[in-house]
Amino acid sequence: MTRTLSRSSSQSPMTSQKEGPACPVGNPAGDSEKYHGARRGPEDEPQLPGQVSRSLGLSTDDPFQPRLEEPREHTATMASLERSRDTGQEAGSQQRGLEAAGDGKPEAELQRVNAQLQLQVEALDRELQSSLAAARELESMLAQQAQRHREEEARLQQEAAQSCSRQVEKQDRQIQELQDSKAFLSDTLEEMDALVSALRQQLSQREEETAALRAAQAQELAELEVQHGARLAEREKRQQELAEQLSQAMHDAEQEAATAAGQRQEARAAAKALEEAERRLRAQEAERRERLAGAEAQELRHQQLLSRCQRLQEKLSVSEGKLEETEAQVAALQSQLSEGQREGPSSSPPRGPEKETAQRLRQAKLQAEGLRQKLEQALAEGRELEREREALLESAVSQGQSLVELQAEGLRQKLEQALAEGRELEREREALLESAVSQGQSLAAARLEAQDLQKELAAQQERNASLQAALEQAEGALMDKEEEARGLQEELEGQSAKLRDALAENVAVASRLAEAAAGFASKKAQLEARGTEERAGHERAVAELRRQLVEYEEQRRAEREEKQQLQAVLQAASEERDVLAKQVQSTAAALESRAREAAQLRDELEELGARSQREDTRLQEALVRQKEESDGQIVALRHQVQTLELEKQRAADSLEQARGQLAAVLAEKGALEETLARAAVELERVGGGDRTEAGDEEPLGLARGRGAVEEKAAGGGGPQMDKQVLAGEPPEDLGAAAMLEKASPEQKPRKSVEEMVKHLTTHLEKAMGEAQQKEQLVKAKEEEAKHLVEQLGRARQDREQFRLALETAQREAKEREKEHRGQLAEQQELVREVKGRLLELLREKDALWQKTEGIDCRAPSVVPQDLSLCARCSQDFGFLSRRYQCRLCQGTVCQACSVESGRKERCCLLCWQKRNFKGT
């Protein structure tokens, strides 16, 4: 019996944690009610192992919480432990009932009860061993779960740290990219500002140049208008004088016609009277005819000389035209060379164009010298012909009669006057050439304004039209006068012939009458007197007619001089118009170059706009990506913060539970001390019986008291405390339990309570340390989130600044592009107007030339010598200049020298003029 009780007492410390506390002996009912009341606390609100997560407010599916569900074996072992605890409680109650019955019970009943107790203890021992095995398995499983939980937590922390570091690096890279893009945008904006400033400077310089050119041009045009007004006044005076002379000549011609009619009647009467004398004078007529044939031969030779002189004059005019063209080319080349020399230090042009211009200048000079030599040769030939003509005239004067001498003298005078007029015209031409060269040089340095040119050219056109009308009227009057003069000259020649015949007949009649009879003496005298009178009258008439002829010739010469002057003025006007046309071409070329520059600038602006748009899109995409990444990072950080808050809440809950358990343990410690005191008192009271029984019962009571204390301590913590003790006690706790078994009965509960308190304090410190670490981690995460939010705000501000800067740059670029487009449209419109006006001027010029002089355009060359030059103006074809092929002569011409002749067809200006003005 003693061995059984000692064995049960030695095994009771292992099962005391699952059994309820024993009631005190003195007051079994009250103690049992107190015990049952203490037990009903954890039984009314049981905490199963699967409900731990629910008590903490967490779900079992939380990835950061280890799964604490236990298998069915654990539930079975817990049920068996409960049953063993119930049986132990029943045995304890029976033992307490037997002890309360006193010493009156028989020994047999006590042995029976001990046997039953031993059987129950053996059953409890077996159940306790199975429950210990299950507890060890549960402990190992809980240790594995705790290890997995720690590994999972370490892995999650490492992943969170890595993700945070990657996000920080990515944000650093994005910030660096944004800074680089910002620097690039600032550089591009600076370049655009520099380009805009340069363009504005160029535009201001060009505006200043155009203003200066306009001022100089306005001054020169004012001077030209003054000169032109003076010339027009002189022309009007000359026209008035010419009209007066024409009216006077008409009056004189009418008077002469009346006198000629009277003379004709008289001549007819004399012819009728002298018909008989004609037969007599036929012999003399033959001689006269011979003399007249000689005179006609001389006149024919004189006409040949005149035609030769005219041809020489035409050659001279052609050579003068060529000389003018070469001088114009030389002037143009000199101007180009001077411009190239002026532009040389600034633009440093290539040596090739300078050599070509110098070579062209030398060729033009050589051509001019050759033309001058030809002109001098033509003048020498003219002088030789003049000398020959003078010699012929002298011989004609020595051989001819008085009429021939008079005609020769008149012709000589006419020729001398013509030569003098030619010299004067040559001097005037040279003066006009010099003035034209000076005007061309002065006008070559200026830019012609389109509107002023149009007004001036319109005024010139009206003046030319008036001059042309006056010239046509003068030419018509001159032709009429020439026809009248020819008629008068023919009549005079007829009368002179008749007079010569009459004189010859009179001479024959006189010779015959001298041989006749004396009866005819009186008649002869009368006839001689009449003949002398008629001869004198005829001579007077011939002299008068000659005088009138000389006057008519002088008038005709004056009219020719006026005509030549008008032609010279018209030629000067056409030359001025050519110069103006050249200036218009140069202006058009300058405008085209400006248009090309504007197109290049527009292309550069478009490229900069496209680049800025690409940068804008790239920045927007980068900002969108950064925003998405930052939003994802913020979401991840929020999730991490939530998980950390959950872990913090969990740690706080566990801390609160640990504190509650500590308070319960302290309360149970006090209760255990009280029960120990009461047990000591009861042992002293029961010590009057058998010492062996007392010795046997004392360990049993102490064991029961210790089991009750341990059960109460375990019941105060509940299943959660059991799990913490089982999960947290290492094998050293078993050694401590063995030490407790070897210790005294009074020190065992105290030591177990102290060990439990130490264990709970260590768990509390660990939980508090983990809570502090988690709080620090949460604070670090919050600071990192704040830093990321600040970076995101700064990035958004930078993005807004970049967007505003980009919008302003795009707006300025669009405004500048609109301004450039407007200027380009104005320049193109001006070029079109100038070209149209130039074509109209060229047409009017050709029409005037063809109407005034009947000049036909030369046939265009079939193929030009050099395909890189224009076939008309010899202008070089550049990279940007367009070239056209004439559909009539197949020549390559520029745009200024070509005209639209149909749908998608062009021809050169000469072919177009020849085709359109051929019938006029």
TrEMBL record:
UniProt keyword annotation of Zinc present: yes
Keyword Phosphoprotein (UniProt): no
Positions of region (Disordered): 1-111, 141-176, 234-297, 318-367
Gene Ontology CC annotations of this record: autophagosome; late endosome; lysosome
Domain FYVE-type: from-to ranges: 864-916
Protein name as catalogued: FYVE-type domain-containing protein
Keywords for the protein's UniProt record, in alphabetical order: Coiled coil, Metal-binding, Zinc, Zinc-finger
Coiled-coil boundaries: 535-675, 764-844
Swiss-Prot/TrEMBL GO biological process terms: plus-end-directed vesicle transport along microtubule; positive regulation of autophagosome maturation
Pfam families with a match to the protein in the record: RUFY4
Biased composition (Basic and acidic residues): 31-43, 265-297
MF GO annotations: zinc ion binding
Biased amino acid composition, Low complexity: 1-17
